[in-house]
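Severity: low
Component: inverse-folding endpoint
Summary: output formatting inconsistent between runs
Steps to reproduce: submit the following structure tokens with default settings.
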């Protein structure tokens, strides 16, 4: 079941470190923090491989305990920090 982004509990998503997938179903990390209108997504639990600051507006839906983005994996580098 998908849930619209307006109904999401961002605090719960951050606390549970929900996994994030791109629009082409590529895992890109877990939500680790919230900063203003952005989510901090980190790929790698022991060694930080990549860090992304993704605007909440780029979240498409939430289903099966995962966030789904509106962007494909080849566009993630725009959100690197």
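Observed output (run 2 of 3):
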């Amino acid at each position: 079941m998908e849930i619209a982004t307006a109904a999401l509990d961002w605090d719960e998503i951050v606390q549970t470190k929900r996994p994030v997938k791109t629009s082409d179903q590529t895992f890109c990390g877990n939500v680790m923090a919230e900063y203003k209108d952005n989510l901090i997504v980190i790929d790698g639990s022991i060694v930080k491989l990549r860090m992304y600051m993704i605007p909440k507006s780029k979240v498409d839906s939430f289903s099966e305990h995962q966030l789904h983005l509106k962007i494909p994996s080849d566009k993630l580098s725009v959100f690197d920090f």
